[in-house]
Amino acid sequence: MDTQDLTRLLHVKNNTKIVMLVADGLGGLPVEPGGPTELEAAATPNLDALAARGVSGLSIPIKPGITPGSGPGHLGLFGYDPLKYVIGRGVLEATGIGFHVGPDDVALRCNFCTLDDQGRITDRRAGRIPTEESAPLANMLNDKVKIPGIDVFVEPVKEHRFAVVFRAKGLGAAVDDTDPQKTGVPPLAPAAHDEPSRKTAKIAQEFYNQAVKLLAGQPKANGLTMRGFAVKPHIPTYEEVYGLQAAAIAVYPMYKGLAKLVGMEIIGTPATLEEEIDVLAGAWNDYDFFFVHFKYTDSRGEDGDFAAKVKMIEQFDAIVPRVTALKPDVLVVTGDHSTPAALAGHSWHPVPTLLVADHCRPDGCTTFGEKAAICGGLGQFEAVHLMPLALANAGRLEKFGA
Amino acid sequence: MDTQDLTRLLHVKNNTKIVMLVADGLGGLPVEPGGPTELEAAATPNLDALAARGVSGLSIPIKPGITPGSGPGHLGLFGYDPLKYVIGRGVLEATGIGFHVGPDDVALRCNFCTLDDQGRITDRRAGRIPTEESAPLANMLNDKVKIPGIDVFVEPVKEHRFAVVFRAKGLGAAVDDTDPQKTGVPPLAPAAHDEPSRKTAKIAQEFYNQAVKLLAGQPKANGLTMRGFAVKPHIPTYEEVYGLQAAAIAVYPMYKGLAKLVGMEIIGTPATLEEEIDVLAGAWNDYDFFFVHFKYTDSRGEDGDFAAKVKMIEQFDAIVPRVTALKPDVLVVTGDHSTPAALAGHSWHPVPTLLVADHCRPDGCTTFGEKAAICGGLGQFEAVHLMPLALANAGRLEKFGA
User: Fold this and answer.
1) Closest approach of chain B CAs to the CA of A315, in angstroms?
2) Residues of chain A found within 8 Å of residue B401, distances taken between Cβ atoms
């Protein structure tokens, strides 16, 4: 039995509202010995007040030492064991551009590449062709490639990258990448490892043949490679495992896609955090659970810009009163992983997390930050435990056993 | 998927150096109410400085409340789930005396015993015969017992104890102990539980028959019992699961043997901790990872001698500057378990642990000790997570998922 087997068994319904505010890449590191992290450096009067009222801790996204991508990071926050529900690269890519991957789909990531007149790769990324040139080519393939009995979707992504989805019953995804990882040789033929995947490989080969004819004459993008063949894992919904009607509010397609994978409804089309909170307020009566995603803490961390990440955290802090004004029964503030500016990338460090509810057991924390959270009442815990804690604090879990 | 499945998938190679300093049985207990533990009582300026620079925590060797032997304790530190990789007693005994147990070996622990003229045991430990008398008898058996098609190794251990290894293809180890656990009856016949083990039981019976003839006339050690039949579990190497070229530096055969089980190379023949650090410095360019084992913290704990253990911890502290002078990218200081002098034996208490690296997230700890580590940034964690943390801090793990 894992934790979701328990929540599936024990959840009950009531009228409470749970809000999970996720500041992407929230956790950080000092940039000088003895210095503060980004969160500690930021002026966060509202988050500090929540820390004083609530209970704090440090969330381990996957396991100690493991740095998560956005996919596993969010699955963990949503309470799904990220080592059990592994989302393949192709599905993540399609999800990231807002494509709704279904149960009969095999999704893959493709690169445009440049071929010489012998069909050998001369540039694996087609000269990093700009999106405004590559997107029309992807759309053209989407219109023109026809494979009998199969729905083929070709979606632009960015520069040389695009996504392809084959839709038909019974397709496998155990197909090797066709990118030979070097130039001077042609792309590999798609090689399959089982019977359902041989069907996919045959479709992929046919797709390749048609595409190369359609791209003939293109100066840069006259070939393509295929990687990360994947099907969507079966993921039970929030309704099934928690009994929650859940809504997701996000600006970026990737996070909308991840939320959709667990059965959340994507609401609104906000472009800013302020607009996200508008959407939250507007839908307040319609859902039990709200996932609100704030991207820019991660973006500025990825840029390696400590001061800019501090500023994003302060923007995030500023909207807190609008959320608390809605009087959620349970408010969780966390991140899907750390993105320290010092590393200019995701990291393995635990993420400061707080939970505020009438019956949380407050600790001694009076500020929200990495060092303060070490002695918080939630301790250090794997992220998958956050949803059961939220449910419990919402009075939505019955006793286990008599 | 367990943590090693992740490290196997995610590890990359670089030029970093990781050092794991293990003070055996490091953790302790106060001997008077409100008093310090051994580590807290010791003057450890160098370890305290590391605690101030790095991140501290408490390592749970196996699971809370479980007291480990040296085998599981070290496997955990090495990142191998000690509940998955169970090393049988016979293999541990042979390993402990430096015998390299191979894939075709069944190893067992034997006791010399005293038999009366009816073949009934009168003393299960042969009067605790001293090693100088028992070792020649073991060596004699090693020379004289001959079983066609089987290599038989008989190795002295200590007092009435010796080790036996049968080497041949296809031997099982599901053979019951022959020690009846009481006197007045003869040793039991070796009873097997499956076909490959019946082969082993037959060999064991033949060994017994020849040995008893060879020991006839001995005043004390004229019989023997056999216990802990075991084969070496398949354990993947450090190279396989971490991509690390690993070296082990230890004085005692047991720890060399445990390190060899996970594929570390045993380097040098140091007799003191100072000499161990000489070996470390001399091999610095040849390996990625160094396990350095210090035995005497455990020994003095086992003696129940608080003051002597304090002194050993101070000796351990004194060599720290020689290690930091080598500038390891990641330095871990820990123990395989606690050995409180108050208990004169191994215990279940979590072990003070620290990790120093450029991108560890410092905490508020300024000393190295049990009480300080409670609020350390590593929190309380199972020992198996230490290796992934070390790898992450060495930049040797890629992101999991996109």
Assistant:
1) 24
2) 68-73, 82, 86-87, 92
Indicate the pLDDT class of residue B30, thresholds 50, 70 and 90. Answer: very high
Please tell me whether residues B203 and B283 are part of one structural domain.
Answer: no
Q: How many helices (H) and strands (E) does chain A have?
A: 14, 13
Compare all CA atoms of chain B with the CA of A95 and give the residue at the minimum distance: B402
Q: Is there a single domain that holds both residue A209 and residue A249?
A: no
**CATH code, domain carrying B299:** 3.40.720.10
**B226 phi and psi, to 5 degrees?**
-125, 135
**pLDDT bucket at B96, cuts 50 / 70 / 90:** confident
The stretches in chain A having pLDDT less than 70 are: none
Question: Regarding beta strands A161-167 and A246-249, do their DSSP bridges make them parallel or antiparallel, or are they unpaired?
Answer: unpaired
Backbone Cα Rg of chain A: 23
HEC-encoded secondary structure of chain B: CCHHHHHHHHECCCCCCEEEEEECCEECCCCCCCCCCHHHHCCCHHHHHHHHHCEEEEEECCCCCCCCCHHHHHHHHCCCCCCCCCCCHHHHHHHHCCCCCCCCEEEEEEEEEEECCCCCEEECCHHHCCHHHHHHHHHHHHHHCCECCEEEEEEEEECCEEEEEEECCCCCCCECCCCCCCCCCCCCCCCECCHHHHHHHHHHHHHHHHHHHHHCCCCCCCEEEEEEEECCCCCCCHHHHHCCCEEEECCCHHHHHHHHHCCCEECCCCCCHHHHHHHHHHCCCCCCEEEEEECHHHHHHHCCCHHHHHHHHHHHHHHHHHHHCCCCCEEEEECCCECCCCCCCCECCCEEEEEEECCCCCCCCCCCCHHHHHCCCCEEEEHHHHHHHHHHHCCCECCECC
Final residue belonging to a domain, choices A211, A230, A249: A230
Mutate to test the interface with B, among A38, A66, A336, A346 (most CBs of B within 10 A): A66
Q: Find the residue in B nearest to A344 (Cα).
A: B359
By C-alpha distance, the chain A residue nearest B52 is A34
Total domains, chain A: 2
User: B288 pLDDT band (50/70/90 cuts)?
Assistant: very high
Residues B125 and B260 in one domain: no
User: Which value does ipTM take for this structure?
Assistant: 0.89
- Choose among B282, B355, B267: nearest CA to B322: B282
Residue B210 lies in a domain: yes
Question: Are the beta carbons of A63 and B10 separated by less than 8 Å?
Answer: no
Residue A318 belongs to a domain: yes
Q: Are residues A344 and A257 part of one domain?
A: yes
> Using the beta-carbon criterion (under 8 Å), do A83 and B375 form an inter-chain contact?
no
* Residue B402 clears pLDDT 90, i.e. is over it: no
A216 in the same domain as A243: no
Interface test with B, best of A75, A93, A374, A375 (most B CBs within 10 A): A374
User: Are B243 and B387 in a shared domain?
Assistant: yes
Dist CA A335 CA A344 (whole Å): 16
Contact B177, B113 (CB under 8 A): no
Give the pLDDT confidence of B349-398 residue by residue, as tens digits.
999 999 999 999 999 999 999 999 999 999 999 999 999 999 999 999 99
**Residue-range definition of the domain harbouring residue B153:** 91-230
